[in-house]
Amino acid sequence: MIADFGFGVLLVAFLASLYSVIAALYGEFNKIPAMVESARRAMLLTWPLLTLAAGILVYLLVNDHYEVKFVYEVTSRAMPTYLKVTAWWGGQAGSLLFWSWLMSAFASLVTLRKWDRDREFLPWVIVVASVTLAFFIGMNLFFENPFRQFYQTFNNEIAAYTFQPANSILFTPADGQGLNPLLRHPGMIIHPPMLYLGFVSFVIPYAFAMAALITGRTDDRWIRLTRRWTLWAWLFLSAGLVLGGRWAYDVLGWGGYWGWDPVEIAAFMPWLTGTAFLHSVMIQEKRGMFKHWNMLLVILTYDLVIFGTFLTRSGVLSSVHAFAQSAIGPLFFAFIGITLITSVALIIYRWDLLKSETQMTSLLSREALFLLNNLLFMSILVVCFWGVIYPLISELFTGQKVTVGPPFYERATGPLWATLLLLMGIAPLSAWGHSTLKTLGRAIWIPAFGAVIVTAALFVTYTQNVFALVGFFLVALVILVTIYEYGRGAYARSRSQGENIFTAFWNLTGRNRRRYGGYIIHLSMMLMAIGILGIELFQVETQGTLAVGDSLQLSGYTVRYKEVASWDNPGAGVNHTRAVVEVYDKNGNLLGNLHPRKDYYYDTQQPMTIPGQLASLKDEVYVLLIDWEPITPVGTTFKIFVNPLVNWLWLGSLLFLVGVIIAAWPDKDPERVTVRDGKRVPQASAAD
Amino acid sequence: MSKNFLRDTQYAILLLLILLSSATTVFAQDPTPTDDEVNRIAKELYCPVCESTPLDVCPTEACRQWRELIRSMLAEGKSEEEIKQYFVTQYGARVLSEPPNRWASYLVPVAAFLLGAFLLFRGFRLWLRPVTAESASPKDEAESVSQDDYVRQLEEELKKRK
């Protein structure tokens, strides 16, 4: 009964979003502000409605209503309550509802802002946001209904239906199947919400971009209005990606954080276009150029977000047949196709209005380098997209199923990443409008010289691997350039304002948040790059079956097997097998005990491998308890990885969050612009 | 039904092969290959059952058997290429971590990059051309430089200090 009510609420939310589309269009075309206001209110109504629907679903999940198919599939009696709540996004139907719920929250937030200066955008922002919302709620209503219940018909057939069939009774299984154990990790509680927050918040810049195109108000007002949305969206998406990486590292038991899996790539692609957009949008703000391109990037990001949402849970790209059999696959693609074609058609329609206001004056100017940056990001995007769809294309045209794994992506994107690092080193030193080789050379030689010294030192003390040395040189260059730029600014400020260097440093960041937040993000990326270079190029592993007291040696470490114990945890429906191993350094000093373990979940009959980790900035000893040899008293099999420098990746991620928060923190008056000689000149303090 | 039958037959053949090959290892001259030797090859093969999972980390029973099969084949003295080829023959090209005709997979990204680079540089030339004519005007030059007020201020401050 309550599930039927949930379905009803979902239906009303769907109708409300459809109404807001129609009312906004009607109000706009017939110039009836009251209708637009009515549309806005209908849109505001979707959030409480979806909150109610979601609340009902969570109630069903927490209270073991296994007559509901979704509840049956993702929970079991043994699961603790918090996991039953997070099981909401543990399956496709729930994920879609979660997406819609977040989307409606963001759409409501946007419509609550002051619209005095941008009245003409309002109806179109409502239309775009509501169409997107209606599409996702529609998916839930018609194809992936989380409220479907099991019914037993008179011939004893049990199946799930939205409406009770004639001559049937409700069927309640005794227990649910339980959540996939991999999704029971704390990382999974926060990773999907972050990713989805990133996804849905990118819809807002898209809605404004479309509103700007439709109304013909194609100055950079839409960009100024959505700049912080975009940064927050980027923050959430980045955090979602990093958390996903950390989850994989801690749970999947293959000693890595990124496997170039289609699902990972699906979340990564909007990040690529989003990052390209964050850079190229600055060209439009500073120089009034490349408006077409920025529009295109926002559109691509939006459609990749939809593509990513769809791919994350569906798995339909595994084969042509899975795609054809999936009810929602073709619909998603139709939606992506329609929005893409409509949006691009609008750009073409408004082509003349989007012409650049100024000319490019130098190949080494900041805007030229940003364009190169965009070329590289887009190339990485093409590699990713092609890699994801190549198996489908191959199967479709040759009938041959193929896998596109990490070697393809690493080989194809490696040089692109390296060039991006080089650009990151050069671009902060180039000026907007005009730079020459001479001015750039004068600024870069000190950091470049420093980077050469660092690389030489690494050559002598750490590695002779050419790829690693090139990578470390670039990383050192970017770090030194960033510090040099920062130092120059702080020094100038401390002299001119009479502040001590730390105060100057602090105030400089405060007054130029976007610039210095951006620099902190660059620095954090470099810390992450150190971690990635370390694990990609220097990871070593070994595996062996040990008797108690025996040991394995790897990269100067000795891992000694002490004991193993296995016990049942009936309350949680899990069997734990936990080993104790000691880790010694090359001098025989005990560094600590590790507890790699294997949890076996009875409800889903799936194991989960939890590594024992000994972390330091130099490297990480990562020990897995493997059961591909049977665990017997005579021998237990361990797999050991030594992952050099990997923790720099996680440190970098933390610094990254700091950087984005600094860059995205609201200014007192972010939209203040002075007009000088009829040209826009952004205020250095606010818009830099 | 026929699909299941086929799959069962495949498993039966596989099991037989494993049994046969493990029987031969008993008489083989080589010592049993280590886990590391097995994993080195398993790492480059993809589980034919699970999506996107390399064979060296796949926890399923089927993969455990496949790893044992690699071990027996190594013990028989088979080369890495022969072992990979065996898996490709049995389960298709999808067990390899990259498509067999590699050039086809790289063609599109490389072409896209070249096209993008070509368009960009063509664009640069177009954008730059009219301005070179205008750049004689000192006003325009000064204006473009003054766009980055911040950098200019910074440079001035630094000059003052010197």
State the main characteristics.
heterodimer, A: 688 residues, alpha+beta, 6-stranded antiparallel sheet, 4-stranded antiparallel sheet, 21 helices, 13% strand, flat, B: 162 residues, mainly alpha, Helicase, Ruva Protein, domain 3, 2 domains, 7 helices, 72% helix
Written account of the structure:
The complex is a heterodimer of chains A (688) and B (162). Chain A has 688 residues and is of the alpha+beta class. Among the domains of chain A are: 1-179, no CATH class; 540-647, no CATH class. Chain A contains 21 helices and 15 strands. Chain A has helices at 2-29, 33-62, 69-74, 81-86, 92-112, 122-142, 186-201, 203-215, 221-252, 262-287, 291-314, 320-325, 328-349, 366-398, 406-426, 437-461, 466-497, 501-511, 513-538, 646-664, 684-687; strands spanning 149-153, 158-161, 168-170, 540-546, 551-554, 557-569, 574-584, 590-594, 597-601, 606-610, 612-615, 619-626, 636-644, 673-676, 679-682. In chain A, strands 5, 6, 7, 8, 9 and 10 form a 6-stranded antiparallel beta sheet that branches. A 4-stranded antiparallel beta sheet of chain A has the order 4-13-12-11. In chain A, β14 (673-676) and β15 form a beta hairpin. Chain A is flat, with a radius of gyration of 28 Å. Mean pLDDT of chain A is 88; it is low at 670-688. Chain B is an all-alpha fold and 162 residues long. Chain B has 2 domains: 2-95, Cytochrome C biogenesis protein (Helicase, Ruva Protein, domain 3); 102-161. Chain B is built from 7 helices and no strands. Chain B has helices at residues 2-27, 35-42, 61-75, 80-91, 102-134, 138-146, 149-161. The longest helix of chain B is centred in the C-terminal third of the chain and has 33 residues, at 102-134. Chain B is elongated, with a radius of gyration of 31 Å. The chains are: A alpha+beta (688), B mainly alpha (162).
